Amino acid sequence: LASIVLLSLMVLSEKVNQLMEWASKRSVIRMNGDKFRRLVKAPPRNYSVIVMFTALQPHRQCVVCKQADEEYQILANSWRYSSAFTNKIFFAMVDFDEGSDVFQMLNMNSAPTFINFPAKGKPKRGDTYELQVRGFAAEQLARWVADRTDVNIRVIRPPNYAGPLMLGLLLAVIGGLVYLRGSNLDFLYNKTGWAFAALCFVLAMTSGQMWNHIRGPPYAHKNPHTGQVNYIHGSSQAQFVAETHIVLLFNGGVTLGMVLLHEAATSDMDVGKRKIMCIAGIGLVVLFFSWLLSVFRSKYHGYPYRYVFFCSFIVFLCIAIQLHQYRRF
User: Fold this and answer.
1) 111 C-beta neighbours (distance < 10 Å), count
2) Is 50 strand, coil or helix?
3) What DSSP assignment string belongs to 147-172?
4) Residue 31, burial from CB neighbour count under 10 angstroms (0-12, 13-18, 19+)
5) What is the DSSP string of 78-119?
6) 184-201 pLDDT, tens per residue?
7) Model pTM?
8) What does residue 91 show for φ and ψ, rounded to 5 degrees?
9) Contact by Cβ (8 Å): 29, 93
């Protein structure tokens, strides 16, 4: 019995030393089928392994895999070059083209997927990262790792100079305009320009751009079996980047329709042009608002849509009354 225990300790020590040597060279250890079975699946093991199952080869055309890999590398590097670096946890990667047998062994048919293989026992339900819900941002992955392994990693991102450069460029443009038009600053009091800028900001925020910035969701999801690409997430708890662009477009269409209706009711143009603007405005509002409801219906099942249509009818009725009161037509 003592010899068995001693042999087990020797094997464990060899595995840990091997992993530490690889981790000192590269934060994310690339594994094939043999390495995965020997270092992750086979006992003895007193360390956890976070494994990213992915498909990074160009012919796989997995854009999300590349985006998730960048965030995963940031997380692993933050662990490697911080006080959290320990031999109790390691970060690894299995590419489909290098370890397809591992995918078959785990009955895995999608990528990217993050799984925590704990030091004791088999992975539980919570050890599989909910990518579609939480996104693949390094900060979200760090919270999940801390929850599953009690290892807290402070994410340190490489410096990004795009923001300061854009701010400097904007200030330079504003400074140039003030310098060139120092005697005439009326453009700063242009209500239309400020209203348009404010409207763009509101549309960007209401479409979910801040959620994308915080969560880092994928742009879209491609079904590995059918090849179908989904741009709208089926859950009300998550979204894709493409979804926010679609909602932004729909909100912009509704807004444009309302602007046309307002101009049709208050402008001094001839009746024929105002009638065209009114019809176009109503058409834009009805079309894009119905598309917004279709997106809403696909995410919030069982919602009382009759109430929404009733409210929409009241809104259009109020618009018609307002147009009639102006007696422009």
Assistant:
1) 21
2) strand
3) HHH-------PPP--HHHHHHHHHHH
4) buried
5) HHHTSTT--TTEEEEEEETTT-HHHHHHTT--SSSEEEEE-S
6) 666 667 777 778 888 888
7) 0.58
8) -115, 130
9) yes
